[in-house]
C-alpha cells in the first residue's frame, strides 16, 4: 500500500508545483476546462481573455472578453462560440485536437461547437491576439480559422464585417443567446439594421421610407465591407462613414448591436473604469421595429425609459417577454359583431397598410374599415400643406411597430367590438421593458459517464488551490488512504454497474429550492430515512422526478450567511463529484440541503465514504481559512 501512496504523493506535488499557466496560446492536444477557474487564454498585453464565461445558472459559453472594466462574472463579452447552446458548468471543455480541429464539448460529451478545421501538420496552435482575435494557426503560421470571421454582436477595431457575416443582438440584457436584431449588408449592398422576429422581419435603418441615395448610401459597391478603425472611424463600402465623439484617441473601442436593437460605438474610459457611448445609430428607441411585439405601443420618457403597453382590448401574450406582444381578448367575427373605434392620439404603427385613401373624412375611413374583414384599424393623417390631397387614411392589416410620440400629429383608430369601446387607454397595464426576458437555468440532464474521473478532478482541484494543498498536505496521509479505498470501491462498483447495465441520470444544476417545493417533494416531510446530529433526512421526489435525500438542518443557531458559506463550500466540492449536492433552501428559519438519493446497495458503501471524505475536506477548508486569517 505504501508504494502507490508515495507515487501518488510525488505526482500530487508535481501537479501542485505546476502553475496553471496563464498563456496566450493553446497547443494541439490540450484543452481548456470549465472546471478550472484559471483555464483561460490571456492576450499578451492583458486586454482580452478567452475561456468559459457564465451565461446563466450553471450555463457557460466559450467566449472572448475584455479584462477591463474590472469584472468577474459580468465581463464585456465580445465573442461567443456557443451563445445559443451553453454548456454545463461541470466537465465541459474546449479541446484543440492533434488534427487541428477546435472542439467544444458539453458534460455529456456532446459536441456543441467546432471549427471543423483540419491540418496534416501536427503543430497547430490557438492564439489570442491583443486585437481580441482568436486565431487557429498551423505550423507554417497560416490561418485555419479566426474568431474575427464569425462575429457575435460586437465588432472590434480592425475586424471587418464582411459579406454573409452579421452582428446579432442578445435576446435581453441578461440573456445573451441570439436576439432579433441584425446588422448586415442587405442584397442592395447597403449596411442595414434588420428586425428578424419569429413571425415577420423588416429593415428599420436606414429609414425605410427614404430612398437609399436620400440617406447618402451607395448601392454600387458589392464588396460589402465595414470596418472600425482604431481611431474611432467606422466606414462601410456603401459610402456610410461616422466618427466617434472622441475620434482620434487611441483607446479601446467596440461597436455593438445591443439587445434593444440599437448599434452603439463604445469607448473605454479607463479613468472611470467604464464604457461610454461615443456614437449610436438610433436616437428614438421606440421606433426600432419589433420593440414591443404586435398589438402594443412603445412609449419612452427620460424618467422611466422605454415601456410597452397593450392596446385597449388586448392582453399580453407572454408575461415574461414583450417580444410576443399582445393578443385580442375578443373575437371579431367578420360579418356578425357590431364594431366601433377607439382613437389613440399621437400614435403610429409602422408598416402593414394594405390600402391608402386620400381626401376621405374620418367617418368615411371608419366605414371603409368596418366593411373590410382584415382591417384592424387605420391611421388618419391631416396635412394642411400637402397638395393635392389634404387627408390620408392608411388601412392596417396588422398592428406592429407601435409607438407613441407626443406631438406626432396623427392618430390611430382601432377597430373593436362595441362592448369594448368603453375601455380607457390609461387603465392598460404597462411593464418595464428592461427586465422583459427572465434568465432561466440550464435544465439539461445527462447519462453519467461510465468511467468517471473523480480522482483526476480531485487532483485538479488541489492543483488550483495550492494554498489549501500546502496547508492540508501535512495531515493528508490518512486522507489519501481513505481516498484510495474509495477509489478502488468506485472501480469495483463501476464494473458491477457495467454488468448490471443501469444508467444513472446525473443532475447538473446546482440550485436554490423554495421551501414550498421541498415541502411538496417530500409530501410534507413524511418519509424519514435518516437522522443525524445536524438534522433529519427525508426522502423526496423533485418536480423533475429525481429522487432526493433532503436534509433538514435542526441547528437554528446557524446564521444565514454562515449556512450559505457552508453550502458554497459543499457546492464547490460537489463540483468535483465527491458529493452530489443538488441544491439548498434557505427561507427564514428553514435551512435544507438537497442531495442525490443513493438507493442501491453498491452505492451505500461508497456514499458513506463520499460523505466522510466530504466532511474531511470541509473541515480541512475551514482550518485553512482559519490559518489564512491568522497569517
Ligand atoms: C460587474 O459587477 C460588479 C459588482 O456587481 C460591478 O461593480 C461592475 O461594475 C460590473 N462590471 C461590469 C463590466 O458590468
Ligand atoms: C468598393 O470599395 C472598396 C473599399 O472601399 C474599394 O477598394 C473598391 O474599389 C470599391 N469598388 C468599387 C467598384 O467602387
Ligand atoms: C460618398 O459620399 C461623399 C460625401 O460624403 C460624396 O461626395 C460621394 O459622392 C459619395 N460617393 C458615392 C459613390 O455615392
Ligand atoms: C382634397 O381636398 C382639398 C381640400 O379639402 C382640396 O383642396 C383638394 O383639391 C382635394 N384634392 C383632390 C384631388 O380632390
Ligand atoms: C404605467 O406607466 C406610467 C409611467 O410611464 C405610470 O405612471 C403608471 O402608473 C403605469 N401604470 C401601471 C398600471 O403600471
Ligand atoms: C435565453 O433566451 C432563449 C430564447 O428565448 C431561451 O430559449 C433561453 O432559455 C434563455 N436562456 C436563459 C439562460 O434564460
Topology diagram in text:
Elements: H1 2-17, E1 25-27, E2 31-33, E3 41-42, E4 48-56, E5 59-66, E6 77-80, E7 87-88, E8 93-96, E9 102-105, E10 111-114, E11 125-128, E12 134-137, E13 143-146, E14 154-155, E15 160-161, E16 167-170, E17 178-185, E18 191-196, E19 201-205, E20 226-228, E21 233-236, E22 240-243, E23 253-257, E24 263-269, E25 274-280, E26 296-301, E27 305-310, E28 314-316, E29 326-328, E30 339-344, E31 347-349, E32 353-358, H2 362-371, E33 377-382, E34 391-396, E35 402-404, E36 410-417, E37 430-432, E38 446-447, H3 454-464, H4 466-472, H5 476-500, E39 505-506, E40 511-512, H6 515-521, E41 528-531, E42 535-541, E43 547-553, H7 560-575, E44 581-587, E45 590-596, H8 601-630
Parallel strand pairs: 26-35, 40-44
Antiparallel strand pairs: 1-11, 2-8, 3-4, 4-5, 5-6, 5-7, 8-9, 9-10, 11-12, 12-13, 14-23, 15-20, 16-17, 17-18, 18-19, 20-21, 21-22, 23-24, 24-25, 26-27, 27-37, 28-29, 30-36, 31-35, 32-34, 33-34, 33-36, 38-39, 41-42, 42-43, 43-45, 44-45
Helix pairs in contact: 1-3, 4-8, 5-8, 7-8
Bound molecules: 2-acetamido-2-deoxy-beta-D-glucopyranose (6 copies).
Amino acid at each position: 500500500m505504501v508504494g502507490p501512496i508515495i507515487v501518488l504523493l510525488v505526482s500530487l506535488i508535481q501537479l501542485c508545483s505546476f502553475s496553471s499557466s496563464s498563456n496566450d496560446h493553446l497547443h494541439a492536444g490540450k484543452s481548456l476546462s470549465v472546471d478550472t477557474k484559471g483555464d483561460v487564454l490571456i492576450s499578451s498585453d492583458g486586454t482580452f481573455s478567452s475561456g468559459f464565461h457564465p451565461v446563466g445558472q450553471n450555463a457557460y459559453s466559450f467566449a472572448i472578453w475584455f479584462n477591463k472594466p474590472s469584472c468577474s462574472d459580468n465581463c464585456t463579452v465580445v465573442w461567443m462560440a456557443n451563445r445559443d447552446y451553453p454548456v454545463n458548468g461541470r466537465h465541459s471543455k474546449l479541446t484543440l485536437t492533434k488534427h487541428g480541429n477546435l472542439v467544444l464539448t458539453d458534460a455529456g460529451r456532446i459536441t456543441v461547437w467546432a471549427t471543423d478545421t483540419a491540418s496534416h501538420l501536427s503543430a497547430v496552435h490557438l492564439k489570442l491576439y491583443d486585437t481580441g482575435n482568436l486565431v487557429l494557426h498551423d505550423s507554417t503560421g497560416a490561418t485555419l480559422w479566426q474568431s474575427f470571421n464569425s462575429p457575435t454582436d460586437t465588432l472590434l477595431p480592425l475586424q471587418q464585417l464582411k459579406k454573409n457575416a452579421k452582428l446579432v443582438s442578445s435576446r435581453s440584457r441578461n440573456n445573451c443567446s441570439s436576439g432579433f436584431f441584425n446588422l448586415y449588408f442587405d442584397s442592395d449592398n447597403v449596411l442595414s439594421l434588420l428586425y428578424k422576429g419569429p413571425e415577420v422581419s423588416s429593415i428599420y435603418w436606414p429609414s425605410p421610407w427614404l430612398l437609399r441615395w436620400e440617406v447618402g448610401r451607395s448601392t454600387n459597391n458589392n464588396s460589402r465591407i465595414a470596418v472600425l478603425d482604431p481611431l474611432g472611424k467606422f466606414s462601410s463600402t456603401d459610402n456610410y462613414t461616422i466618427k466617434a465623439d472622441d475620434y482620434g484617441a487611441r483607446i479601446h473601442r467596440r461597436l455593438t448591436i445591443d439587445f434593444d436593437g440599437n448599434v452603439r460605438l463604445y469607448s473605454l474610459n479607463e479613468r472611470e473604469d467604464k464604457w461610454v457611448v461615443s456614437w449610436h445609430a438610433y436616437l428614438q428607441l421606440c421606433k426600432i421595429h419589433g420593440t414591443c411585439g404586435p398589438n402594443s405601443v412603445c412609449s419612452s420618457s427620460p424618467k422611466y425609459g422605454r415601456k410597452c403597453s397593450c392596446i385597449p382590448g388586448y392582453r399580453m401574450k407572454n408575461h415574461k417577454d414583450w417580444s410576443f406582444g399582445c393578443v385580442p381578448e375578443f373575437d371579431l367575427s367578420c360579418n356578425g359583431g357590431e364594431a366601433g373605434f377607439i382613437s389613440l392620439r399621437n400614435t403610429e404603427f409602422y408598416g402593414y397598410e394594405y390600402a391608402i385613401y386620400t381626401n376621405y373624412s374620418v367617418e368615411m375611413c371608419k366605414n371603409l374599415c368596418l366593411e373590410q374583414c382584415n382591417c384592424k384599424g387605420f391611421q388618419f393623417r391631416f396635412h394642411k400643406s400637402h397638395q393635392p390631397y389634404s387627408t390620408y387614411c392608411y388601412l392596417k392589416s396588422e398592428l406592429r411597430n407601435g409607438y407613441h410620440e407626443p406631438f406626432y400629429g396623427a392618430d390611430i383608430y382601432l377597430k373593436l367590438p362595441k362592448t369594448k369601446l368603453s375601455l380607457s387607454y390609461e387603465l392598460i397595464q404597462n411593464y418595464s421593458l428592461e427586465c422583459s426576458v427572465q434568465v432561466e437555468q440550464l435544465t439539461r440532464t445527462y447519462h453519467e459517464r461510465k468511467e468517471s474521473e473523480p480522482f483526476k478532478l480531485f487532483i485538479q482541484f488541489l492543483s488550483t488551490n495550492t494554498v489549501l494543498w500546502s496547508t492540508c498536505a501535512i495531515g493528508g496521509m490518512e486522507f489519501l488512504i481513505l481516498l484510495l479505498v474509495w477509489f478502488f470501491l468506485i472501480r469495483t462498483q463501476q464494473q458491477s454497474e457495467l454488468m448490471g447495465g443501469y444508467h444513472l441520470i446525473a443532475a447538473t444544476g446546482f440550485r436554490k429550492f423554495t421551501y414550498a417545493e421541498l415541502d411538496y417533494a417530500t409530501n410534507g416531510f413524511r418519509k424519514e430515512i435518516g437522522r443525524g446530529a445536524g438534522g433529519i433526512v427525508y426522502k423526496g421526489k423533485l418536480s423533475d422526478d429525481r429522487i432526493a435525500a433532503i436534509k433538514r438542518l435542526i441547528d437554528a443557531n446557524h446564521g444565514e450567511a454562515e449556512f450559505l458559506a457552508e453550502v458554497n463550500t459543499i457546492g464547490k466540492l460537489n463540483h468535483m463529484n465527491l458529493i452530489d449536492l443538488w441544491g439548498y433552501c434557505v427561507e427564514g428559519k428553514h435551512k435544507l440541503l438537497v442531495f442525490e438519493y443513493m438507493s442501491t446497495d453498491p452505492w451505500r458503501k461508497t456514499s458513506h465514504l463520499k460523505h466522510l471524505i466530504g466532511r474531511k475536506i470541509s473541515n480541512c477548508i475551514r482550518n485553512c481559512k482559519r490559518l489564512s486569517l491568522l497569517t
